[in-house]
Amino acid sequence: MNSFSIPLAAIAKIALPVFLFSALATAQQGLDAETQAKILKGYQAAPVPLNLTGRDATLVGLGSYIVNYVGECNGCHSAGPPTEYVVGGNPFLGQKIKVNPVTYLGGTRDFGAFPDPAGPFPHIVSRNLTPDKTGRAAGGMKLDEFVTLMRTGVDLDKLHPTCKGAPDTKCIPAPFSGELLQIMPWPAYGNMTDRDLQSIYEYLSAIPCIEGGPGEPANRCVLGPKTTAVAGPKNTTAFSKWLQLDGSQSTTTGGGALTYQWSIPAGSPTAGISGANSAKPNVQLGGGGGLYTFLLTVTDSSGNTSMDSTTINYQGN
Ligand code: HEC
Q1: Which residue segments constitute the domains of the chain, with CATH numbers given?
Q2: Per-residue pLDDT tens for 181-193?
Q3: How far is the CA of 232 from the centre of ligand 1 (A)?
Q4: DSSP string computed for 196-224
């Protein structure tokens, strides 16, 4: 038995989502048995669906192994012990472990005022490590920024500077450096190999985005509204010169109402449009038999527009 066949045989015994089979096989090729075993365990460990599009499957598997089984990042980077596990899935209560995907690596666990819980100092709150809409780990961090942060502990978001005067609940007093992340075990993690840190980054880029977290903007997960005009009816032959256009299949993800504007491009026979600002205007084809083209422009509440056209083949006169 060669070393490659061992983990693949093991896969058959566990319930791994189908889409991971090929990623896992790819990830394990040409690696030593120990690394292969870590990758397999990594994929088993992930408590959330992973988006592997454009990701290195080897690094994602290794990163999951480190994040979930070694670093236990979620212990601090979930919202706190009461919601870290789903109800009935808390291993400390003797239950079979089931990590809560809703809070998984989303941060917001409050470690209290630092350095003295009774003093007028800022609370140290774990950060949201999930990717944002850019698809990059920890709210859009670049790989080199992430590696530097893990190695040096420098807080890129500068959430709690060192006090220059009296403490004011926003700054951290000397001798602590407010420029550095506190509580976060970067002095240990920072000694990992480049590949290990890159793996963590790759895994954190593949997990689902969660909203919220200190210093995070609203709607960090949301791509800008996507608005699509759909002009209808499509591929229609008309025998009457009266008909109704239909733009009601147009969509927007932005919420809010769409506005409609129908028009007739130059070169198309004339037609009367009644209700050119509505989703379903009535038209009267006025130029005899032929091809009539209508343009629909829809605009969403943020001002994004999209255009579509439809052509009607009028068989009348
Ligand atoms: C002991 C608790 C603890 C553990 C374990 C922990 N962290 Fe943290 N981490 C924190 C806290 C708290 C902060 C914010 C510190 C501050 O504000 O000074 C933080 C901040 C970070 C940041 C900065 C994020 C940003 O947006 O600037 C990153 C990245 C990070 N942690 C990654 C990790 C990774 C990866 C692991 C596991 C390998 C991990 N942490 C494990 C407590 C922890």
Answers
A1: 46-206 (no CATH), 227-314 (2.60.40.10)
A2: 999 999 999 999 9
A3: 52
A4: HHHHHHHHHHHSPP----TTPPTTTTPPP
